[in-house]
Design goal:
Length: 181
């Protein structure tokens, strides 16, 4: 063996386990956001995690090399380029717009938190795309609007159906009053 030849070592079992954990989270997530957390304290990271909890999202810090291995195994394009510097991954299983909104709001209050981008359903997102996603109404609000849109024609129809016998009764009463006079 020459001095310039490198010896390939098998990865340590704990690193393999971390990569498998990331692969599992990437596979089960609807969206993944990448943010830079340089300069944030443990308390500030905990506040970000607490803000994401209602959206069924998880904010986790992994080593970039292990995260890149997992991203390449899953085949998510565009995500590995974002993993530069101190990066945290946010795995979203629930409300994607709600998680993006929580990250955006946290970034407003904590300037050290920088949104880099992410992936939604296999499509890469820029930081501007994540911000635009945060502007969308929440899932509950969209469902309420949809229910209101479905309800409006039914309410109008019910009003028309009630007006028909009522107007007939008024007309009939007017005819009776006219003949009585």
């Amino acid at each position: 063996m020459s001095e310039t030849a490198t010896v390939e070592r098998a990865p340590r079992p704990e690193k393999v386990a971390v990569v498998e954990e990331i692969v599992g989270k990437l596979s089960g997530a609807q969206a993944v956001f990448v943010s830079e957390y340089r300069g944030l304290t443990v308390c500030q990271l905990a506040s970000i995690r607490n803000a994401l909890r209602p959206s069924d999202a998880e904010h986790v810090v992994y080593k970039n090399t292990l995260a890149k291995l997992a991203v390449n195994q899953v085949g998510l394009e565009g995500l590995d380029e974002l993993l530069v510097g101190p990066s945290a991954l946010t795995f979203v299983k629930g409300d994607v717009a709600g998680a993006a909104k929580a990250l955006r709001d946290s970034a407003r209050t904590l300037p050290a938190l920088v949104l880099k981008g992410g992936v939604l359903g296999g499509s890469p997102l820029s930081a501007a795309d994540v911000t635009a996603l945060a502007e969308l109404p929440s899932r509950e609000e969209l469902l309420a609007r949809f229910a209101g849109a479905l309800q409006a024609p039914l309410v109008k129809t019910a009003g028309l159906l009630q007006a028909l016998p009522r107007n007939f009764a008024y007309g009939l009463q007017a005819l009776i009053d006219k003949q009585a006079a």
